[in-house]
Amino acid sequence: xxxxxxxxxxxxxxxxxxxxxxxxxxxxxxxxxxxxxxxxxxxxxxxxxxxxxxxxxxxxxxxxxxxxxxxxxxxxxxxxxxxxxxxxxxxxxxxxxxxxxxxxxxxxxxxxxxxxxxxxxxxxxxxxxxxxxxxxxxxxxxxxxxxxxxxxxxxxxxxxxxxxxxxxxxxxxxxxxxxxxxxxxxxxxxxxxxxxxxxxxxxxxxxxxxxxxxxxxxxxxxxxxxxxxxxxxxxxxxxxxxxxxxxxxxxxxxxxxxxxxxxxxxxxxxxxxxxxxxxxxxxxxxxxxxxxxxxxxxxxxxxxxxxxxxxxxxxxxxxxxxxxxxxxxxxxxxxxxxxxxxxxxxxxxxxxxxxxxxxxxxxxxxxxxxxxxxxxxxxxxxxxxxxxxxxxxxxxxxxxxxxxxxxxxxxxxxxxxxxxxxxxxxxxxxxxxxxxxxxxxxxxxxxxxxxxxxxxxxxx
Amino acid sequence: xxxxxxxxxxxxxxxxxxxxxxxxxxxxxxxxxxxxxxxxxxxxxxxxxxxxxxxxxxxxxxxxxxxxxxxxxxxxxxxxxxxxxxxxxxxxxxxxxxxxxxxxxxxxxxxx
Lengths: 460, 112
Fold this sequence. Notes:
- The structure holds 2 protein chains of 2 kinds.
- Chain A has a single domain (about 40-450), classed as Ammonium transporter fold.
- Chain A has 14 helices and no strands.
- Chain A is mainly α.
- The relative contact order of chain A is 0.13.
- Chain A has helices spanning about 5-20, 25-70, 75-100, 135-150, 160-185, 205-225, 240-260, 270-295, 300-315, 325-350, 355-375, 400-430, 440-445, 445-450.
- Chain B has 2 helices and 6 strands; from the N terminus they run βαββββαβ.
- Chain B has helices at about 15-20, 70-80, and strands at about 1-10, 30-35, 40-45, 50-55, 55-65, 90-95.
- In chain B, strands 2-5-1-6 form a 4-stranded antiparallel sheet, with helices on one face. In chain B, strands 3-4 form a two-stranded antiparallel sheet.
- At the A-B interface, α9 and α10 of A face β3 of B.
C-alpha cells in the first residue's frame, strides 16, 4: 500500500488521540490545586469562625462576666470598658497595630510594612499561616488585641475615668501589647520558638501575650489608682452573678476559638488544643470548688465560674502542646492556686484588684506558662524542627528540662514589660487627663457620671 | 379612720390577702421592704469577702379602714400572718386625718 494510504488512515487517529483530553501531568497539577483549595477552604472556614468566637469572648462574654460582678450603679460603665475596645482597638490595629505586631522588623517590634494593612489581602503569609488569606490571620489576631486591654479593666472597675481609659488602652496596646505579640508570635520575635527567636518560648495561644501582660498590668493599675472609696468598710457585692454565669459560659465556648483556632488550621492539632482546653477548664472548676467547699463550707457559683476562667487562662499557652491528662492537671492546679490568690493573697496584701484580673489572669497565666515548659511534647506538636527538618523535642516530659527555664525567661520579660509599660502609660494618662473619677462621680456611679445612663429602669 | 401597717413574712402574703378578702377588705397597698427585729440574718461569701446580711426581705401591707373595723382587721392580719417563729413581723395602727377618692372627690369614711 502506498504511504499516502497509511498517512490518510493515521491522521484522524492521531487527531482523535490529541482531542482525548489533557495530559496526566496537567490533570495531576489540577488535582493538587483542588486539594490545596479544599484544605484552604476548611482552614479558612474554621479560622473565620474562630475569629468570631474570640470576639464573642469580649462582647458579650467579658462584658457580662465583669458587668455582673460590679455594683448596679457601675454595670454599664463596666460593660462599656469591653465594648468600646471592640471599636477602638480595631481602628488602631488596622492603621498600625497589625504591622507593629507581625511585620518583620526587629526582634522586639515589627516594622511598618503593613501600615494601613498594605499587602494584607487574599494571599497567604506563609510565615504565619500558609493555607489561609493573610487578611483572615490579621482579623483573627485583631480579636486577641481587643480582649487583652479589656481584661485589664477588671482591676480599675468602678473608679476609672472613661476618657483616661480610652487613652490608656491605646497607649498600652502600642507600648506593651504590640511589642509582646511581636516577640512571641512575630517573625524574628525574640521569644518566638518557631520563627527564629533567640529565647525559644512556647506560647500556643497567648498565656504571656494576653494573660500575663493584662494580669500584671491590672495589678499595677490597681495599685496606682488605689482602692475604691469605702473598700473594706462597705459591702460591694456582685449585683448579678446571673450575668456573670452567662458571661463565663460564653468565655468557655469562645475560648475554643482562642486556643483551638491558634492552630491556624482545621487540623488534628486544633482538635488536640480544643480537647486540652475543655479538659483543663473542667478540672479547674472542680479544683476551685473542692478547696472552697472544704474551706468555706459551701461551694459557690461565683467560685465555680472563677475556677473555669482560671483553667482557661492556664491552659492557653499549653493548649497546642500538651496531652489531655496533663491538661486536666494544669487546670486543677490553676483552679486551686488561683483560689488562694484571690481569697487569701489579695486580702493579705490589701490591694483592690476589683475583678481579680491579676489573681486569675496574671497568676493563671504564669502557672500555665511554666507548666507548658513541663508538659509540652512533640508527640502533640511536631512543628519545631531543626535545619534538617528533624522534629525537635519540646518540654521536660520530652527530656528538655531547659525549656522550663526558657518559659521562665519569657514570663519574666512579660512581667517586666507589663510593669514598666503600664506605669509609663498610667503616668502619661494621669498627667494629661487624670485617671481616677472624683469622689462624687464614684459615689454616683460610672453609669450616670460617665455615660448619663442607668443600667436598669425597671419601673418604666 | 385608722391606717393599719403590717410588716410580714413574704411567704404569708397570700394568706393575709385571702383572709382580708374574706372579711370584705380589698383595698390595700403592698411594698417589698427589707428589715429585721430580733431575727438573725445570714452570711454570704463572694470570692473570699464575707458579708453579714442582716436586712431580710419582708412585705409591708398598708390599708386604711373605718375606726369601727380597725380591731377586726388587726386580728385578721395577725391571725393569718402568724407562723409562731421569730421573724413573723409586726402590725402598727395610726390615726388618719383625711381620705379623698381621686376619681370623684369623696371624703372621709365614704372614700374608703
